[in-house]
Every structure is written in C-alpha cells, then in structure tokens.
Amino acid sequence: MNPLELTGARPGEAFTVAFDGRPLRALPGQTVAAALWTAGVTSWRSTRGAGRPRGVFCGIGVCFDCLVTVNGSPNQRACLVPVRPGDVIRTQEGTGRDDG
Amino acid sequence: MTTAERPRLAVVGAGPAGLAGALAAAARGVQVTLVDAADQPGGQFYRQPAPGLGARRPQALHHQWRTFERLRDGLERHRAAGLITHLADHHVWCVEREPGSGALSVHALRGPAQEQGVTVRADAVLLATGGYERVLPFPGWTLPGVVTAGGAQAMLKGGLALPGRTAVVAGTGPLLLPVATGLAAAGVRVAALVESADPAALLPRARALAARPGKLAEGAGYAARLLRYGVRVLPRHTVLEAHGTDRLEAVTLASLGRNGRTRPGSARRIACDTLAVGHGMLPHTDLAGTLGCTLSGTDVRVDDEQRTDVPGVWAAGETTGVGGAALALAEGHIAGRSVAARLGGTAPDPRRWAAAARARARQRAFFAALDAVYAPPAAWADAVPDDTVVCRCEEVTAGAVRTAAGPLGASDPRAVKLLTRAGMGWCQGRVCAPAVAALTGCPLVPERRPFARPVPLGVLAALPEPPPG
Q1: Which of A43, A62, A80 lies at the smallest CB-CB distance from B144?
Q2: What are the chain B neighbours of A27 within 8 Å (beta carbons)?
Q3: CATH 2.40.50 given to domain A29-95
Q4: Where are the beta strands (DSSP E) in B318-419?
Q5: What is the pTM of this model?
Q6: Architecture of B8-132+282-369 per CATH?
Q7: Which chain A residues have a beta carbon less than 8 Å from that of B150?
C-alpha cells in the first residue's frame, strides 16, 4: 500500500524538476517538500551556524526549517510552495544569499 | 437586503471553526469573507490532497468526513448565492481595528510567494486561526527524518507523501493515535507508538469520558486499528535520543517511572528512518494579541457568545483553547449566530443554540480530562542535555539558555532572547518558546507578534495612510 493507492489517486501527468542538478519526478499539486520526500530526499538546507542539514519539521509553514532555494529565490518554505514543471530546486546554504 | 446593505464579517481561517462560523452567519444574512491560507477549505483537520493529485477517496485519510462534506456543500451553496466570498491562499498577517469607528481591516498576503498585499474590510472579525504542534527538544531532534506528528500527517493528507519506510510515533497526546494509524494505512511500518502518559489514568476521570461515548468508541477504534497494523504501543515511555549523522537512523527509548524520570537500564534502540513526534498543541493567538484581546494563559479569552473583549472581534476553535474539531464546530456555530444577531443590533437568544452550547460544554470537559493525563513527563526540561539545540532557527543550545537564566541573571524568556537570540529567528519563537520558558523557570506566555508572518517591505509601503488623529 502507498498513499496514492490508499486514496485511489489518479494524478495528472508527472513532470521533471531539478534538485541540486539531478532530475527528479514530481506530481502536479504536490508541494516542493512532498515531491522531495517522494523522491527520497529529506534534507535541503544547511544551517547558518553549524552547517547542519534540515528538511521538513512542522509541515504546515510555522517553523521555517524547510527553507529552500527555488528558481534562484532562497528562503522559500518547501512545505507551502507548489512544485512546477521545470523548477530548479537547490539546497539552501545558510542565509541563501549566495544561492541566487 | 442587498450585498451593500448587509453587515460584513471577515472570518480568518477555513477549518472547522471558521467554516461553521461562516455558514451560521451567512445563513442569517451576514455578508461573509472567508480568508484562508490553504488553497482548499478544511484547515489542518480536513486537509485534502491537492486537486492535481486526483484522489478519488480522500476520506481514506480522515474520519468524520461526512461532517466535512456537509460544511463544504454549505460553503458552495452560500458562495453560489453570493453570501460568502472564499479567499483561498490568503495569508493574514495583521487585523487592525480603527479606534473611532470600530471598522476592522484584515491584511493578507496573496499567493504561495506571499508577496502581494490584500486588505479586507469588515464590521466584525471571527478569528478561527487554529493551532500548531508543541514539540519539546531532545538530543537529535533537529535531524532530517524527525518531523512533528502533525507535520507527517499534513504531508500525507495534502501531498500524499511519506517521509520514510519505518517510523516511530512518539510524544504525548491524542493526536499520536490518528498519526500512527494514518501512516500505517499508507504503507509505513510503524515500529512503535511511544506515549509518555499512561492512558489508563483516564479511567478515574470516567465522568467526563462517560459524557462522550462517541469519543470512547473512537479511542477503541484506534486501538483495534493499531492492533491490526501490528503497531506496538508503549505507554509511559519516552524517546531519549534520535541518532544519525545527516539523517535519522534510530531512536533510543526508555520507560518512565512514577516520578517522570526514565528508569535506569530500560533504554533500548529501535532502527527507523522517521520519528513523528509531538507533545500537544498550542493555539495561534498572534492576530488576537495584536488586536489587544485578553489572553488567558495561551488561549484567547471569550465569553459565552465567543466574543473576545475587543468590540467586533469574536474567536472560536483551537485559538480559544485546544479541544479538537467537534469543539471547534460548536464554538464556530455559536460565534456565527452571535455575530449575526449583534451586527443586526439585537442581543442573541442563547436558547437558540442550546444544542451547540451543550456540545461545547461536553467537549471542554472531555479535553480538560485529556489535558490532565496527556502531559509531558514532569522532569522533561531537566533531562535536556546542555549541548542540545533548543532554538532550531538560531541554533541556541539548552546550555546557553541555562547560562543566560542562571549566571547572567535573565529572569524571563525575553531577557534570554536578548542574551542568546533564542526565539529571534524565522519562526519568531513559535517552536522553542515552551522549552525556553521551562528552562528559564517561567510559565509559557505567548509573545506579542505585531506581524503574524513575514511581510515584504513593499506591502507595508503600499498600505494607505492611517486617518489623521
């Protein structure tokens, strides 16, 4: 069983996005975080201080742990931002100011 | 009555409380604008997969789906009739009340990028802003793969996404049950459900429980499903540590003694790639706080009509005290009826909502009983090691907070923040506040946050000038 089977989902056509230079498959309607989780990726930020990896924590836009750089814009909450065909998603390093 | 003549209500939040309030008010001739951050109504409780995912059975991830269908159909009817305007994907950052006229302005940011400002004006506001999960720190809780229990559920309900293959669900509170069964139903191996409280302690509080036979049946239903999925339930246990280098690989559990401390020699390690953890819920009270509404502890204080002590401002649901969806529905309904009467210039007759008032009283008593049982272990703050990060945004350790509160003399979380930056980061202390308060030896008091979310300077600059005087 998986969540798609459980809910009888018939998603729209999958598309490709790039994560740190490698292609990933994503489904329409998913957030950036959901697409990354589905591809087996759980971290996409390194912290400003200790450079530690982070990913989803609260999942509802409260904690800001899942910040990511999407199409050159850093500090996007991956759990809120919908994934779009051709998105270029990059691990956010620190403040993300050098990710653009 | 034409649209222009009807009194206007802005409802902030389209979860159970907001929907119930919007429907009750619209049915009584109020022109309602429902402002909500999500792209579909339902809030966190009735979060659904995005339309693009084509889920034909979203109810497989929910219970009480029928209730939601009724709310959704009611919303559609009122929308078609022009009585409710639903502003989805609108993120409210402030509600202002003009002191003279009492007119209310709801300021929101539109779109996923939250860069475009929108202002909704109204004669009354219903705050139905819901809540979020409290998570207390422990070593390894910042590792990827450690998520809040509600977060794991939200990602599953909304994105049909799973964080891994083998999960431990841990912490305390009734939310852990649907999270464990939901993950198991979706194909995750749930290695253990670790609850620090002893749910058997609910039995002496049988009076509040006996009033809620439906809730007992719900609990029994979860127990049967946990058994069916082979989930081991470990009451009076806690997660001591999450292990891994760049992501979660295992957790160490231990059993708790009567004093709330771990039993020596009881620690054991369980391999897992996911830890879904939570220690109860906290209300979102930022908007109410900025409006000047009096809070009682962490909750917005309301009267029997769900009115706050600021004229024109009502509140319902988790923001007035965490108590679940059924309580939120009752409170929202009462609020909507009260708004309709008050904006029409009459005092409402509470006998008209007697059934909702009884449901509200029962649910509040039931959650008070749950609250007394599902509490974190008494000594949890003492057990946090000095090198554990407490403030996830600013990477401030428990040791730094203790130093600020001890040798440096900080006597409250605000002083600790100034000395350590704990609570100064992106989340504005929403995540770390319970831990910082406990480590400082203070009760948890909601911080005043004039902006409920980050606002671009351009949006602020574009706001109209306030009237003179």
Answers
A1: A43
A2: 52-53, 160
A3: no
A4: 389-391, 396-397
A5: 0.95
A6: 3-Layer(bba) Sandwich (3.50)
A7: 58-60
